[in-house]
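dumping this here so i dont lose it
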């Protein structure tokens, strides 16, 4: 296995830099300056840390990398301005992130793993062999790279790229701490969403950690057998338990929860499915203003598998949920021409 020749400085948590850098940097206030260069000014070479003495910059340069990705491929959608970034890692794998602009928001959708061990059968990431977790630094570097490239601040972060965030829990939460810290990336916690297939102990841990970020559950089905067909590796989480845990998340964090529901033609898109979903949500006491259902009509991801329902089916599904008092939204596909929409981050641009 290939490893980095020097450590990657973004892999070191800022609070640990005080001890890690002690042998290289005499004055402690310099550490604060270094954190500012890395996370606020987001400068990509130690040489440009201009308020540091030359010898300190030299010490940093010989001991660490400031960036880990080797190169970047950028594809921009002509449909909606979405940009898909493909980063090549130091060990020659690919990591994907998507920049999603609207008039008022600039969100990024980022990855937490290379490949995905969950293997949802409607998602192209599930077809990529799982290689490894991304490090804390690699997770953050995606956001930092995009902010530098766009020369603007990102307003929201979606952990909805490749990988199951909860299978990389420590790096996920370490990255979240830097994202929401006022002295680091400083992005509002309410604008961070962690999306997961649902691993019950991890949802509880995230709730108890009190970061206050939003949680999105990829539910996609209304009975356990049906769910197992599309998410074979579902961690034996029962739908009723998953929904109960969402309620726990809400109560504990006072944040918001999204229920994601991919609509697959002829599989989970009938009126009965919609009524069943409403009943399940009512039983779990999830029909309330801080919960939203996001319907995601299937985006083409793999050969010969599913299709999106007709529009009338999608609208009927939405109407039934609405009549039950549920906040419901149809997620618009972004970047369809560059393979950047939900479920499409599995192919490699070269
Ligand atoms: N691994 C995370 C993030 C996945 S991407 C998770 O499981 O939640 C964000 C959402 O898009 C998830 O709800 C995912 O299930 C859904 N998705 C995956 N493939 C899709 C496809 N082909 N069309 C539409 N949505 C898809």
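and the seq i came up w/
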């Amino acid at each position: 296995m290939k490893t980095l020749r020097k450590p990657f400085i973004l892999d070191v948590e800022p609070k640990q830099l005080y001890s890690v850098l002690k042998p290289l940097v005499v004055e402690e206030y310099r550490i604060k300056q270094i954190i500012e260069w890395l996370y606020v000014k987001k400068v990509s070479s130690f040489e440009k840390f201009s308020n540091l003495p030359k010898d300190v910059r030299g010490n940093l340069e010989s001991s660490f990398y400031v960036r880990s990705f080797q190169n970047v491929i950028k594809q921009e959608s002509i449909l909606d301005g979405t940009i898909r970034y493909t980063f090549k890692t130091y060990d020659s794998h690919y990591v994907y992130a998507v920049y999603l602009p609207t008039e008022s928001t600039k969100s990024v959708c980022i990855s937490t793993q290379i490949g995905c061990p969950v293997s949802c059968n409607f998602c192209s990431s599930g077809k990529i062999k799982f290689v490894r977790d991304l490090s804390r630094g690699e997770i953050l570097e995606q956001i930092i790279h995009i902010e530098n490239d766009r020369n603007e601040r990102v307003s929201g972060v979606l952990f909805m790229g490749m990988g199951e965030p909860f299978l990389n829990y420590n790096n996920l939460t370490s990255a979240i701490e830097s994202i929401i810290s006022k002295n680091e990336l400083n992005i509002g916690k309410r604008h961070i969403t962690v999306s997961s297939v649902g691993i019950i102990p991890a949802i509880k841990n995230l709730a108890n950690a009190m970061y206050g970020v939003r949680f999105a559950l990829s539910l996609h089905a209304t009975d356990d057998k049906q769910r197992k067909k599309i998410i074979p590796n579902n961690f034996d989480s029962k739908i009723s338990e998953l929904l109960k845990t969402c309620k726990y998340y809400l109560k504990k964090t006072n944040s918001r929860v999204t229920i994601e529901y991919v609509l697959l033609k002829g599989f989970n898109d009938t009126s009965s499915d919609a009524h069943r979903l409403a009943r399940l949500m009512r039983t779990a006491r999830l029909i309330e203003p801080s919960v939203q259902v996001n319907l995601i009509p299937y985006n083409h991801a793999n050969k010969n598998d599913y299709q999106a329902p007709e529009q009338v089916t999608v609208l009927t599904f939405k109407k039934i949920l609405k009549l039950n008092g549920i906040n419901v939204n149809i997620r618009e596909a972004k970047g369809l021409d560059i393979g950047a929409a939900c479920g499409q981050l599995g192919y490699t641009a070269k």
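Residues 136-150 form the longest helix (15 residues).
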